[in-house]
Amino acid sequence: MSAFTSTKFFAATVLTAALSSAALAAGDVRFTAEQAYPEGIAWSAPQKSFFVSSIHQGVIGKVTMNGHYTPFIRDARLVSSVGLQFDARRNLIWAAVGDLGNSVRSSPATQGKLAALAAYDATTGERRAYHDLGHLVEGGHFANDLALDAQGQVYVTDSFSPVIYRLDTQGKASVFVRSELFTGEGFNLNGIVWHADGYLLVNKHNSGELFRIGTTGTPDIQRVALPEALKGADGLLLLAPNRLAVVQNSGADRVVELVSNDGWRSATIASEQKTAGSFPTTATRVGKTYYVLNSRLDTLMTQGAPRVSDYLLQKQ
Questions:
Q1: What letter would DSSP give residue 136?
Q2: Who contacts 11 (Cβ-Cβ below 8 Å, separation ≥6)?
Q3: In terms of Cα–Cα distance, which of 118, 117, 108 is closest to 143?
Q4: What is the pLDDT of residues 143-191, one digit of tens each?
Q5: pLDDT range class, residue 277, cuts 50, 70, 90
Q6: Residue 136: Cβ-neighbour burial (10 angstroms; 0-12, 13-18, 19+)
Q7: Cβ neighbours of residue 47 under 8 Å, at least 6 residues apart?
């Protein structure tokens, strides 16, 4: 995700949302959460609910299929809750924690400096762990998204430092990989998924690049050849070993499905679809389909824009 100050962009996105709201597809889920501005989403099959994060409030909430929102985790250490993952094996909710400066809990000590990973019991909401990642690397920090591998290790992107962190199964955090390829202005690394063939797929929000990074031995970073730069790329969702959904915002406001026939050395665009609401951020799998979160973060990041509390999970 990224910040916008253009009133022209704001007006355009509000108009787009208003025009499209009358034509929502069957199965879409609308919910209301007081100025939550959810960025991350994860589906829990056992609870038949979505977990949603909050950039503005920090709270992690639950949303049922009929659109009922309930605050679930209130933790003072969640300045902004960002990317989420439901860990069914350990019954945990993993949350990336950062601070862009637009949370009710923002402070000079954390704004642009916070990268953390928290884990909570998915049934009770009790905090099980909290790992400070930012102390591992000097510079600015914003923990953005996360992925779990088959062993249960957690990988976390930092949008303000050119690194990916890894938390092993013993609870030890480290810098998994660092590269100048991950540097740039504004938001850099963002969405991340783990592939069962032993590598990560990670996007870079500002440039629209996609990287393939091996997770065994020395990390091998390869740029995936794409037909076009996917600028504004945010969340990633692996739909099949050779198919990847990329959620784009920053004015693109669409979902692109990529297909690769060479183990993600290259990919082509198989389909694309505009989102019904503004500023989509990420997606989660529910059975044979998936849902995309329209966060409306443009209205939080645009100076003087009216705040909103209504959000949309769009069925694909």
A1: G
A2: none
A3: 117
A4: 999 999 999 999 999 999 999 999 999 999 999 999 999 999 999 999 9
A5: confident
A6: middle
A7: 62, 122
